[in-house]
């Protein structure tokens, strides 16, 4: 069974680098670039792990975590 990881970081280069490492280890990945995108992605399909940056525009990582916990 393939494990799914949501990578959330407003710096695309960092998200891309994390994605490369995870894909090399056999994980399926999806990326979001702010907290709002992360909530939308999580609402469409479940993930086994969310890697979340704290300092992001629109909605910071802490608020995104609070909201994700409500739907988990």
What does this structure look like?
The protein contains 3 helices and 3 strands. The protein has 72 residues and is α/β, with parallel strands linked by helices. It has one domain: Rossmann fold, CATH 3.40.50. Helix 2 runs parallel beside helix 3. The radius of gyration is 11 Å and the shape is globular. The mean pLDDT is 94.
| CATH fold category name | Rossmann fold
Poorly predicted ranges: none
Largest sheet: 3 strands, parallel
Q: Could you name the CATH homologous superfamily?
A: Response regulator
Instruction: State the distance separating the first and last CA atoms.
Output: 20 Å
Strand-residue fraction?
Answer: 15-25%
CATH class value: Alpha Beta
Strand order of the largest sheet: 2-1-3
User: What average pLDDT do the residues reach?
Assistant: 94
Overall tally of domains: 1
Radius of gyration: 11 Å
Number of DSSP strands?
3
* Overall body shape: globular
**Helix amount:** 40-55%
The CATH architecture assignment turns out to be 3-Layer(aba) Sandwich
Helix-and-strand structural type: alpha/beta
Q: Key features?
A:
alpha/beta, Rossmann fold
Brief account:
This protein is of the alpha/beta class and 72 residues long. It contains three helices and three strands, in the order βαβαβα. The chain has helices at 12-24, 35-44, 61-71, and strands at 4-8, 28-32, 49-52.
């Amino acid at each position: 069974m393939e494990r799914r990881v949501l990578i959330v970081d407003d710096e695309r280069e960092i998200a891309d680098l994390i994605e490369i490492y995870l894909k090399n280890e056999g994980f399926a990945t999806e990326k979001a670039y702010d907290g709002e995108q992360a909530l939308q992605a999580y609402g469409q399909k479940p993930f086994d792990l969310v890697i979340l940056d704290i300092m992001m525009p629109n909605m910071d990582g802490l608020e995104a975590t609070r909201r994700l916990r409500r739907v988990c």
